[in-house]
Every structure is written in C-alpha cells, then in structure tokens.
Amino acid sequence: MPSPFPGMNPWMEAPELWPGVHAALISEIRSRLNSIMPTRYFADVEERIILCDVDDPMIRLIIPDVTVRESSNPVMLDSPSSVVATITPALQAHVSEPQFKERHIAIRTSDSESIVTAIEILSPANKLKGSASRTSYLSKRRDLLRSEAHFIEIDLLRAGNRTEPAAGMGRADYLIWLSRSEDRSKVDDWPTPLESPLPTIPVPLLPGDADVALDLQAVVHDVYDRSGYVRRLDYSQAVPIPPLTEKQTIMLHELTSP
User: Number of folded domains in the chain?
Assistant: First the structure.
C-alpha cells in the first residue's frame, strides 16, 4: 500500500524515525539505479565518520555514548593518624569520542571505480547550524563541486537550515538539485511543495551515455510500504515541525481521516 500522500509523507520526517527512513531511501535508490544503469556503472553506499565535541548541538540527534554509574565498592585507606578513612564512592563515566556516520550514494565506473555522480540525502544534522556534521557536509559538498563528478542533493526535510548554491531555491518545502560537472555555472532544481508529487529526476553519467531517470515519488512510496512505515505511522499525532499552512493542514486531515 503506497503512502496516502501525493508527495513526501511528513510524518516520516520525525527525528526519531529519520535515521531508518534515510537508510531505506539510500538503499532503495541504490537498487533502482543498479537495475537501470548500463553495466559499466554501479551504485554503492559509502559512509564518512564525523567526530564531534560533547557540546556539539548534533549530540541530541545521536544515541548518547556516555554512561554514568555509581561505584559500589568503597576504598579503604590508612590515614596518618591510624584512623581508617573511607573514600566517598565516586561515579564512573565511560566516555567514547562521539561519532556520527553519514551515508551517501556514489555512482562509479565498473572498471576503474572512479566516481561519476554523488547523491546526498540530507539528514537533520546536515541542516543544524553550528554542528560538526553541517560543517563537514558543506566542506565535502564544496570538494565535490570542484571535482569532475556530477552532484545531486536531495532534501526531504522541511525543518532545518538550507544552504543553496543559488538564491531563492529553498523556498519550497522540499528541494532537489543537480549540478553537472561540465557546467557548474548552472544547476537544475526541483522545488517541491508538500502538496505535490516528488519529481522524477535525471541522473547523469559519463559523456556518451544518456541520463537515467530516478522516480523519487516511487522511491518514497516503496520505502513507506516495504520498510513498515505503513504500519508504524500514527496520523493522530502532530505533524513534525515546522508548522503546516492552513491549506496543508486541511489536505492532510482529509487524506488521513478514516
């Protein structure tokens, strides 16, 4: 059963659900690309590790890596006056350096495995001002836009801060854009409101090979169905932030009412 919405399902944007949604979107896109691209290419999921300080704002998006427990064994020491002193039980903290894994899709050539196209699906941490994830992502994006690889950014989150390559692109609820390596002076973009279906976008390959079509709406419908969100989402709960317009509220009520 597909999602009841014509476009993105806003309940899938909930921060507690997004890691699973993100992983499922990446897996589905990889599978679709590998089924339609010429055999000289393959799409794979790659990841980078982000290290952050304990006060980084993205920490609240990660399962805590710090645990504290009370010591149950007091330590006895002989004092100079021969009076036995009992050390006050301490709390013990087991600390590991906070880490955050970010996954993306890379299309590479089958022979040399050189990268042809990079596809990024934004996470809440990528859009969180002051976070190590956002800093790292924007730096990686700059590197890719200076490389010979095509670049696609998919933002299916209404919340957070966007950094678009051109002014005015980020006014819609969702935004997908493509920068082709042969002409960085222009980008193709698909600003998409909540009320509209997500676009089918071209995925460019090497010169001489035609673009392949990626139907993002079909991807979201399949993730909703095959990954169990059709059973998990509770439409009686509030829509994740940001607030909806009055028109959107009426539409969602109509679509989710029994």
Answer: 1
